[in-house]
Amino acid sequence: MNRNLILGLILSSLVILAALVSFVWTPYAHTAMNIPQKLQTPNALHWFGTDHFGRDIFSMIMVGARTSIAVALVAVSIGIALGVPLGLLAAARKGSWTDEIVMRSNDLVFAFPSLVIAILITAVFGAGAVNAIIAIGIFNIPVFARITRGAALSLWEREFILAARVAGKSATHISVEHILPNVMNLLIVQGTIQFSLGILAEAGLSYVGLGAQPPTPSWGRMLADAQTMVSFAPHLALIPGMAIILTVLGLNLMGDGLRDLLDPRLRVRRS
């Protein structure tokens, strides 16, 4: 029994459940302001307290989970959809101009962190969740391209690939039919890790005002709003901060557990 995987699944499931439930129910409307009840500490009516506008923090955390998951999920999907084919192509054309162009393009993207890419995008199109998705997604493309290429290169020298080439199969056919299934486990683990990093990136972009815009709740913007009130209302920063920490921790534990589960060599080594 893999404890990391179980604990990661529990933490991740709680966050996903909160996000799904928020579509149909929250204790209060996340935009409802009640100034007379502002800055309340956690109590029976407001489980996580209220913010400086009297909004229910528990409701905002639930809807914020929806925002973070949606941004990270779409951004990682962009990285997989574009990065994996590029990695397979580069591996199949190792040493060619195609390989060189793909890898040097990856180096160029790596030179600009997602925050810098987001600033460039928002300078042209304005701030928002969609632009945050694009920025994080662009940064994920070279990650998956490098992972895929590195794993695929070792497979191209294996006997079953040589047999497929002798049988007359094209490089594209071999990449899709033989290479991709054998790197899928690695991509699943990396996707879990990038998903957690995507949630961190979304929180960071929202913290500096480049992510989801009001009135859509965001954990990062909740932290930004709370930074001037930490001395007399610390729960405003602690609660969204703990939400980010527990979500990222759960996803990282799940990724570590999946790596052990999908790689028999690691499982034997740790046993």
Mind explaining what this structure looks like?
It contains ten helices and no strands. It is an all-alpha fold and 271 residues long. The protein has a single domain (3-27, 43-270), classed as Orthogonal Bundle (MetI-like fold), CATH 1.10.3720.10. Helix 1 crosses helix 2, helix 2 (57-92) packs antiparallel against helix 3 (97-110) and helix 8 packs antiparallel against helix 9 (235-262). The longest helix is centred in the C-terminal third of the chain and has 37 residues, at 171-207. The protein is elongated. The N and C termini lie close together (11 Å).
What fraction, in percent, of the residue positions are helical? over 70%
* Reported CATH architecture: Orthogonal Bundle
Spell out the CATH superfamily.
MetI-like
And the CATH topology? Answer: MetI-like fold
> Mean pLDDT, as a whole number?
91
Number of alpha- plus pi-helical segments = 10
Anisotropy-based shape = elongated
Give a short account of the largest sheet: none
Strand residue content? under 5%
Uncertain parts: none
Spell the H/E element sequence: HHHHHHHHHH
Q: How many whole angstroms does the radius of gyration measure?
A: 22 Å
Oligomer: single chain
Structurally, the number of domains stands at 1
N-C termini distance = 11 Å
Number of strands: 0
The helix/strand class is mainly alpha
Q: Under the CATH scheme, which class?
A: Mainly Alpha
List keywords for this structure.
0% strand, mainly alpha, 271 residues, MetI-like fold, 10 helices
